[in-house]
Amino acid sequence: MAYQSNSNNVLLGRGRLFFDRWSSSNVDTNGLAYLGDCSKLEISTSDEKASIYDYGQSTAPLLNEVVTKREVTVSMTLHEYTKENLALVLMGVEAGATQSSGSITGETLTTSVTKGKSYQTANRSISSVVVKKGASTLVLDTDYNIVDATLGIIHITTTGSTLTNGDTITVDYAKAAIASPGLDRVQGGMSSQILGRLVFLGDAAAGPSFDAEFWKVSISSDGVAGFITGSDFGSFDLKGTVLIDSTNHPTEAYYRLTKRS
Questions:
Q1: Would residue 56 count as lying in a domain?
Q2: SS3 for 84?
Q3: pLDDT of residue 29
Q4: Region for residue 25 given its phi and psi (left: phi exceeds 0; alpha: psi -120 to 50; beta: otherwise)
Q5: Distance between CA 99 and CA 9 in Å, rounded?
Q6: How many CA atoms lie within 13 A of 85 on its CB side?
Q7: Closest to 240 measured CA to CA, from 178, 195, 176, 204
Q8: In the chain, how many domains are there?
Q9: How far is the C-alpha of 215 from the C-alpha of 248, rounded, in Å?
Q10: Is 91 left (phi over 0), alpha (psi -120 to 50) or beta?
Q11: Are residues 190 and 204 in the same domain?
Q12: Which residues contact 250 (CB under 8 A, 6 or more apart)?
């Protein structure tokens, strides 16, 4: 009987990846979030085995072996810097940055200024900035510069003659309202465990397309999230450890693959 390779079974994989991040009480409340452009999804199974050999023979052939531990993992490379994705790779919590509008008077920038250094206001999105030393008003672009009004960064020049190192300086300004739901914010490193359900919808460029459903996945960072990336687009890697879910899926406790057609 002749056997031939089948080009229809050679895979050039593509597809969409979704993750349902569970609440802190491990409840499915958020629904599936699309993780965006993903250039890698790999599934691996790692087993530890106990082995017994026949030591009655000089070659000690293997008599038997059994699996003592099994770990199923998924590896992903993501490219879209969304709040949801960054919260995963940075083991963080999603949040929204809000603030009310208002006027701030006499906020202390520093009690011991160092000329040539920059200082930050307590609020974002500032305008109408007036920096003071006591009752004396400092001169913009002579004594100080506003480096970034969005984050409230004020630079103290080295050339201004009004200030001396060690002086206390204050600032008056207006702050703009940032309404709910606010600016995307990630509170990095605040999650000790991220659990959820992972779903893959296959759409292969060549070969068979499979769907994958992972019932219970523990997410961890598997690298770095670059924010200065040179001449390349940024990406970041995630690792998911697939936890067994025999209660809800007794016949396919880790995950399942289903060919789309």
A1: no
A2: helix
A3: 67
A4: alpha
A5: 56
A6: 21
A7: 195
A8: 2
A9: 9
A10: left
A11: yes
A12: none
Please give the residue range of the domain that contains residue 253.
12-48+67-95+186-259
Contact, 151 vs 124, CB < 8 A?
yes
Total-model pTM: 0.89
62 in Cβ contact with 229 (< 8 Å): no
Residues 129 and 149 in one domain: yes
25 & 137 share domain:
no
Q: DSSP state, 135?
A: T
Same domain, 165 and 41: no
What phi and psi values does residue 8 have, to the nearest 5 degrees?
-70, -15
Read off the pLDDT of residues 134-179 as tens digits, 9 standing for 90 and up.
999 999 999 999 999 999 999 999 999 999 999 999 999 999 999 9
Residue type at position 214: F
Q: Among 119, 149, 176, where does a domain finish?
A: 176
Distance of CA 243 to the CA centre of its chain: 21
Alpha-carbon gap, residue 152 to 100, rounded angstroms: 15
- For residues 32 and 84, give the distance between their C-alpha atoms in angstroms, rounded to a whole number: 11
Strands of 144-148's sheet, edge to edge? Answer: 118-120, 153-156, 144-148
From residue 102, alpha-carbon distances to 170, 176, 224 in Å are 17, 7, 38
Tell me the pairing of strands 144-148 and 136-137: unpaired
Q: Give the integer Cα–Cα distance in Å for 80 and 236.
A: 9
86, two tokens: 């960054």
Does residue 192 sit in the same domain as residue 90? yes
